[in-house]
Amino acid sequence: MSSDERSKHQEEASKRMDTAQYNICFNSSTERPFTGAYWNHKGNGHYDCAVCGERLFDSQVKFDSGTGWPSFWDAEGNIAKVVDKTLGMTRTEVKCGKCGCHLGHVFEDGPQPTGFRYCINSASLDFKERKQ
């Protein structure tokens, strides 16, 4: 994505997001565990990027990891993975592959069949109910 496209997403998002949500999506901040809208959400549908609307995760791969953040064992959409060496450790950050929105991190301690745990900020997501 070009810097112009990212600037456009940031400008548009700044008009509709509160400061905390904007900082999570564009400054790689993190919401406190057990506080986000989707950590214990049980809806049937899909989770999209809160910035650009890209479909990212299906509710059928969501699981309770006990961490206080929405967790998924597989990604459905365009996810970019980036090495993150902040906080004195090496982790894999996940971002929306379309707009670059910070989503959270992925770890290799999740359930089978993938073994992944995508640990995602609720603030980075919008939920869309599945149409019957």
Automatic annotation (TrEMBL):
<dbReference type="GO" id="GO:0006979">
    <property type="term" value="P:response to oxidative stress"/>
</dbReference>
<protein>
    <recommendedName>
        <fullName>Peptide-methionine (R)-S-oxide reductase</fullName>
        <ecNumber>1.8.4.12</ecNumber>
    </recommendedName>
</protein>
<dbReference type="InterPro" id="IPR002579">
    <property type="entry name" value="Met_Sox_Rdtase_MsrB_dom"/>
</dbReference>
<keyword id="KW-0479">Metal-binding</keyword>
<keyword id="KW-0862">Zinc</keyword>
<dbReference type="GO" id="GO:0046872">
    <property type="term" value="F:metal ion binding"/>
</dbReference>
<dbReference type="GO" id="GO:0030091">
    <property type="term" value="P:protein repair"/>
</dbReference>
<comment type="similarity">
    <text>Belongs to the MsrB Met sulfoxide reductase family.</text>
</comment>
<dbReference type="GO" id="GO:0033743">
    <property type="term" value="F:peptide-methionine (R)-S-oxide reductase activity"/>
</dbReference>
<keyword id="KW-0560">Oxidoreductase</keyword>
<dbReference type="InterPro" id="IPR011057">
    <property type="entry name" value="Mss4-like_sf"/>
</dbReference>
<dbReference type="Pfam" id="PF01641">
    <property type="entry name" value="SelR"/>
</dbReference>
<dbReference type="InterPro" id="IPR028427">
    <property type="entry name" value="Met_Sox_Rdtase_MsrB"/>
</dbReference>
<dbReference type="GO" id="GO:0005737">
    <property type="term" value="C:cytoplasm"/>
</dbReference>
<feature type="domain" description="MsrB">
    <location>
        <begin position="10"/>
        <end position="130"/>
    </location>
</feature>
